[in-house]
């Protein structure tokens, strides 16, 4: 029996996933976590074969959780299940060590297939993600400005594009306002933008806005 840990801050999502997973007859949920720090603690304490991880988590971002887990247990497969469409985060998270990426709009049967695949040591690459990965093979000169941002810069770029203030982002990421302001300036400079309004327009034009 394949042992699954679910890390998502919404209890109703965890409940639904648990039902889907255990109805497969091949997997069972051995632990649940509602925050990033809880996910890390339970992964260290409880034996599991696959982690299902959301990237929007309180106290630690899913990206930071992913990198920490991958550093500590590089052989443990992590399947990202997120509200964000593939073109926002999939490429970055797979490069950071995720075994697969799918959205929460995915059909239950596809979630089961993805879990069984990553539990078997393979990557789960959906057609949408495959296309994104193929498009990312170009040189730096061919990449769009947002593709040149670091993971943290990109995360803050998306939060700014969703109309969150610097203070709100600082609270969300448990960082100082000064740190977020520095990242904001760096993002604007790298993307050759002048202000948040231009940043939001860029996100809309490139289908990155939520």
Automatic annotation (TrEMBL):
Write down the superkingdom of origin.
Answer: Bacteria
List, for all copies, the residue spans of the domain called HTH luxR-type.
Answer: 142-207
UniProt GO BP: phosphorelay signal transduction system; regulation of DNA-templated transcription
A Gene Ontology molecular function term for this protein is: DNA binding
Residue ranges annotated for the Response regulatory domain, each copy included: 3-119
Under the heading CDD domains, the entry gives: LuxR_C_like, REC_NarL-like
Q: Which residues carry this modification: 4-aspartylphosphate?
A: 54
Which keywords label this protein?
Answer: DNA-binding, Phosphoprotein, Transcription, Transcription regulation
The molecule here is called Response regulator with a HTH DNA-binding domain
């Amino acid at each position: 029996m394949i042992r699954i840990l679910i890390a998502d801050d919404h209890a109703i999502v965890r409940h639904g996933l648990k039902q889907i997973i255990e109805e497969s007859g091949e997997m069972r949920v051995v632990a649940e976590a509602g925050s990033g720090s809880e996910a890390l603690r339970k992964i260290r304490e409880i034996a599991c074969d696959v982690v299902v991880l959301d990237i929007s988590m309180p106290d630690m971002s899913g990206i930071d959780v992913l990198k920490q887990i991958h550093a500590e247990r590089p052989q443990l497969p992590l399947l990202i299940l997120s509200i964000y469409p593939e073109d926002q985060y999939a490429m970055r998270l797979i490069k950071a060590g995720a075994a697969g990426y799918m959205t929460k709009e995915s059909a239950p049967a596809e979630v089961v297939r993805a879990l069984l695949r990553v539990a078997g040591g393979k990557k789960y690459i959906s057609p949408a993600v495959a296309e994104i990965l193929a498009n990312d093979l170009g040189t730096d000169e061919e990449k769009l400005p947002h593709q040149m941002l670091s993971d943290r810069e990109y995360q803050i770029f998306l939060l700014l594009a969703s109309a969150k203030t610097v203070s709100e982002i600082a609270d969300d990421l448990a960082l100082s306002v000064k740190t977020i302001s520095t990242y904001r300036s760096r993002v604007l400079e790298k993307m050759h933008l002048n202000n948040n309004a231009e940043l939001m327009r860029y996100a809309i034009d490139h289908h990155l806005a939520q």
